[in-house]
Amino acid sequence: MSDPMSLRVVKVGGSLLSSPRLGARIRQWCERQRPIPTVWVVGGGKLVDVVRDWHAIHGKQLPSADVDAHWMSVDLMSVTAKMFAALVDEWPIESSIESLQEQFSAGPQNVIFDCRTWLPTVDDLPSSWSVTSDSIAGRLAIELSCRELVLLKARAAVGEKVSDNVAQGVIDEHFLKLGQELNVTVVNLNSERLDAKDLF
Fold first, then answer.
1. Which domain holds residue 167?
2. Cα(first)–Cα(last) distance of the chain, in Å?
3. Does the chain have fewer CB atoms within 10 Å around its N or its C terminus?
């Protein structure tokens, strides 16, 4: 996977799992894309909101609450990966870089990535609320030598820069610290035209 143009990473915002049109919108978006191997990362959505509530209530009483909340949220991304798979014709779910490579050796296809096993091997993502599935997907794109990162959101991008979107809470605050240049496209999956904006 050394060719950065041969692969894309797509992050699906967890809040989109609550949309009754998600499966259809994903299929619409895929039909408009060039057929290259695509890795999908699914955010935690409303399941992680429960962890946020727990952390807000009990966090000050528990010394390891920040780290615990982070890994609870990552655990829930394994659940949302399965939820997403059920909506998209049971695309395969893989949990290692090696298994992704094996899947893509057969040619262009869609593979969902369960990051729970891989993420503990990554030492440059802090275990905090500053890291969401945005930065996880971005870090995975770097790991795969991929420069094409698509963030499917329930809202439109703001401004022309990644930094604008970090400042407005569209993209998580750690994203700018990933340290490598990524071609980032934000797609508003709730818009009828699937409005997309390339950021720099």
1. 4-199
2. 24
3. C
